[in-house]
Design a protein that fits this description.
rod-shaped, alpha+beta, five-stranded antiparallel β-sheet, Beta-Lactamase
Length: about 725
């Protein structure tokens, strides 16, 4: 590579010749002085002495000049060495630069030298480029492209970051960022240019812009709250889901939560908590998560999981903190519902066990009272006492029925229920219950799907809600019962989170009464919870409603505002109604007396004795067993006929259902009557599938038992049990 700039050589021979001539002159003068003799006073001698001294002075000056020349010669040699080294370094950098470099004349743009990257980028060989102008090669396709570069160089002597397109040999274009200087190359003004390919840079910038827009849009669309803080707890970024108002978001930038609390009039403890969490993430250098209870300016309570993630710079110090807030309010509500359901289940099991024991006692009391009542006809006082016992037992039986309904241990029907017909049929009864000061409004669509349940229990639900509504409107008002069909994804989607997919029948029972506060609303379905005065309520009405609806696979919710009334929303899964099941059995007699043999199985001694006494009084032969195992053994070894089995459902060891399965094989055609105070889940499902004549609910009277037994024995075609 030739030199970029030329310097003229230094010729020192003239100085050396002068010094030699001065030496010769000085020697000649000394010789002349010796030859002129001893007459020192002659003018010639004096002149020669002056000339000799002048020559000495001249010689000294010439020698000094020569020393300076020698020093300059050494300096020039060093500079020449440096220049050669610089040229070599430049050549090395020039040839190995990752950027395209070229040297072209300033006047025409004729290339004097190019590096390998230049040739590789444009697709030319060195021979095709050297000596050609940029115009001849058509390198600058843009009009006046090279002129921009030359004008900048002539004006400032340099050009920096000038972007131009360059056409390759194959015609394609590359975009370059040019840095250029004017230099002297072999005595000629030239342009030394370095070109950086910006196609990749532009693609990277476009990709970075695309990613930035994508993530900005993602942050805007995310339901979660996202914010970025500096180490002073100042906002650097706020997502729209965090602060919906754009002006407020703009105002908050470079401000803290303390400023926001002051702006909104919110308790500063909120800002203090968040600042403490941010500082903890900075101090620990790790993620910090906390649950936050947030009360908005309009009083709404929301719950969030706040996660604070530290972001480090290249030195390992925390530079920013990203805050992520996830709204868990609805999860909290679902958690409360689950906790409530679990509590109801636990209490329900307890209530079911209590009701079972009570029903056994009440069965004995009612049976004995009815048995001895005819014997007390001659004593009015005794007869009145027995009647009071019967009345009290019936009231207690009603209470146990509510307990069983609440605990889901009460056998019930599972048939398609016509809701409009069932509720419409009790309209007149509802009007009597709510009284004249409360108006009743009912609205049903013409076509309603049915649900699988028990019509009697649906009536019980509506009655319970109507009584509660009446008590909430002591000065009168309106009770509305509205029925409609809703889909799982219709209104109230959050409450539907626990519903089965598909259509549901919604029953809304709403009053215009005093309403409830939040604490009452939260506890309204708890068993034994009541806001009524002492002796005015058992606290089981709404808990029974809750239990029955849950058993049907539905859900019940309450909405209430103090002073503005209460609404209960019941959702029941809709079904297509199958054809009505027609009873094939035909009853031919209704008398209660008989002579058949009945096997009575009951683990409670008192109940077993009362049932046996009633049946013997009606003329039946009675076989008794205290357990399923004992009954099965007796039935296998008893040689006479056994016409009917009367068995309790729930017993230690073998249950009534298991006994029935065994006896059906050993005693085909055996009629069966099941009795129970409550049933476990499997037995309750079994009982619900039985025809009503084959089950009797404890407690029962002697007349009810005798009628059931006679009814089953008088069926012309023996029914097989649905086992």
């Amino acid at each position: 590579m030739d030199e970029i700039s030329d310097q003229p050589p230094h010729n020192l021979s003239a100085s050396l010749d002068l010094l030699s001539q001065v030496d010769e002159l000085h020697s000649a003068l000394e010789q002349l002085e010796r030859e002129s003799g001893t007459d020192a006073e002659t003018p010639t001698a004096d002149l020669l002495r002056h000339a000799a001294r002048a020559c000495q002075t001249l010689e000294s000056g010439v020698r000094t000049f020569g020393a300076q020349i020698d020093a300059l010669r050494g300096q020039l040699a060093a500079e020449e060495e440096l220049r050669k080294n610089a040229d070599e370094r430049f050549k090395l950098a020039y040839e190995n630069s990752p950027f395209s470099m070229a040297i072209a004349t300033l006047s025409e743009g004729r290339f004097r030298d190019v590096n390998p990257v230049f040739l590789n980028n444009l697709g030319y060989t060195r021979e095709e480029v050297i000596g050609k102008t940029s115009a001849e090669l058509g390198i600058f396709p843009e009009t006046g492209g090279r002129s921009f570069l030359v004008d900048a160089l002539r004006k400032d002597g340099r050009a920096d970051a000038l972007e131009l397109s360059a056409r390759k040999k194959d015609g394609s274009l590359r975009r370059g960022r040019i840095y250029a200087r004017v230099v002297t190359y072999n005595g000629e003004a030239c342009i030394l240019s370095l070109t950086q390919n910006v196609d990749e840079i532009h693609r990277a910038e476009q990709e970075a812009m695309r990613l930035r827009q994508f993530y900005e849009q993602l942050l805007q669309d995310l339901p979660a709250q996202i914010a970025i803080f500096d180490t002073q707890c100042r906002y650097l970024y706020i997502s729209p889901s965090t602060v919906k108002n754009a002006q407020t978001r703009e105002w908050l930038l470079n401000r803290t939560d303390f400023d926001y609390c002051e702006l909104r009039g919110i308790d500063r403890s909120l800002a203090a908590r968040r600042a403490a969490w941010i500082n903890a993430a900075i101090a620990k250098g790790e993620i910090v998560s906390q649950e936050e209870r947030f009360v908005s300016s309009d009083g709404e309570i929301r719950y969030y999981i706040r996660t604070f993630t530290p972001i480090f710079d290249y030195t390992g110090h925390v530079k920013h903190v990203i805050a992520y807030g996830h709204d868990i309010t609805e999860y909290k509500h679902l958690e409360d519902q689950l906790r409530h359901a679990q509590k109801m289940e636990a209490i329900g099991r307890l209530a079911g066990g209590v009701a079972h024991d009570f029903n056994n006692l009440l069965t004995a009391m009612m049976g004995i009272a009815e048995y001895i009542l005819p014997q007390a006809e001659e004593s009015p006082t005794l007869a009145a006492g027995i009647a009071e016992i019967q009345s009290t037992a019936r009231r207690a039986a009603e209470l146990t029925r509510q307990l069983l309904a609440f605990s889901r241990r009460q056998p019930s029907k599972h048939v398609p229920v016509d809701i409009a017909q069932t509720i419409g049929a009790i309209g007149s009864m509802l009007r009597r219950i709510i009284g004249e000061t409360v108006s009743l409004r009912m609205s049903f669509p013409q076509e309603l799907p049915r649900f699988m349940g028990d019509p009697g229990q649906l009536e019980q639900i509506i009655m319970n809600l109507a009584v509660n509504a009446r008590d909430a409107m002591p000065h009168g008002g309106e009770l509305s019962i509205l029925i409609s069909v809703v889909s799982h994804d219709d209104d109230r989607p959050l409450e539907h989170a626990l519903l089965r997919p598909g259509d549901h029948v919604r029953i809304v029972v709403r009053d215009t009464g005093v309403g409830m506060d939040d604490d009452t609303k939260r506890r309204v379905f708890e068993p034994f919870f009541t806001t009524k005065g002492e002796g005015k309520g058992t606290g089981l009405g709404l808990s029974t409603v809750y239990a029955i609806v849950e058993r049907w696979g539905g859900r019940v919710y309450v909405e209430s505002i103090e002073g503005a009334g209460t609404g209960f929303y019941i959702y029941l899964p809709a079904v297509e109604a199958p054809a009505e099941r027609i009873e094939a059995a035909r009853i031919v007699a209704t008398q209660t007396q008989g002579s058949e043999t009945v096997l009575v199985v009951e683990d409670e001694t008192t109940v077993r004795e009362v049932v046996s006494r009633i049946l013997r009084h009606c003329g039946y032969t009675v076989l008794e067993a205290a357990s399923g195992e004992e009954a099965f053994t007796l039935a296998k070894h008893y040689t006479g006929p056994i016409d009917m089995l009367v068995s309790d459902m729930v017993m230690p060891g073998m249950s009534g259902r298991e006994l029935a399965e065994l006896l059906e094989t050993h005693r085909p055609g055996l009629r069966m009557l099941f009795m129970s105070g409550h049933c476990e889940d499997e037995d309750a499902e079994f009982v619900s599938e039985l025809e009503s004549p084959r089950f009797i609910q404890k407690p029962f009277t002697a007349t009810e038992l005798a009628s059931k037994v006679r009814e089953l024995l008088d069926v012309v075609e023996p029914q097989r049990s649905d086992i």
